[in-house]
Amino acid sequence: GNVMTESEIRAILTNHGVSIQKWGTGEAKGLDDLLTEIQNGESVLSVVDGKIRRTVCCVVVEVRHVQGGTWLVLIEEKQVFVDGRIRWRDVPPSIVEKIRPDETPEISARRALKEELGIDELAGRLPLQVLGRMTRGPCKSQSFPGLPSFYSSHLFLVYLPNYLYKKDGYI
Known about the structure:
There is one protein chain. The protein contains 3 helices and 8 strands. With about 170 residues, it is α+β, with helices and mostly antiparallel strands. The strands form 2 sheets. Strands 1, 2, 3, 6, 7 and 8 form a 6-stranded mixed sheet that branches. A two-stranded antiparallel ribbon has the order 4-5. It starts with 5 loop residues before the first helix and ends in a 12-residue tail after the last strand.
């Protein structure tokens, strides 16, 4: 396939005035992370009307639980990087996961439930409601500052039964 190298990506970003100086610090990911994302087919770097953009296809899974007549919605509080840096989430959805090229949105949603909540084969049996699709952008990317990002999202809803609900949260 058409696999970009790190130097090609660096050149495209530079040519379009994207500074990667602050990448890999604070809440930002590094150039190697973008390279991995592109190589894995999780995002696409393209130039539209002379402007560079990163397009990410993802699933958004809202996780709900009903307890004593009260709706509880799980929110993702933070992301902890391998090196210990923390990124606090400011978006309300429960789970956001990139769609891999070999996956359908539903498969991605089930993988996300497994990875984020530790719900394994059970996740395969939980009914997933399809809420629709949403595209937003250009957005400022927290991961890659200065690189306008577009998100094409497939929205799902899942209800957690009592036996999967952990009142103290999921790590």
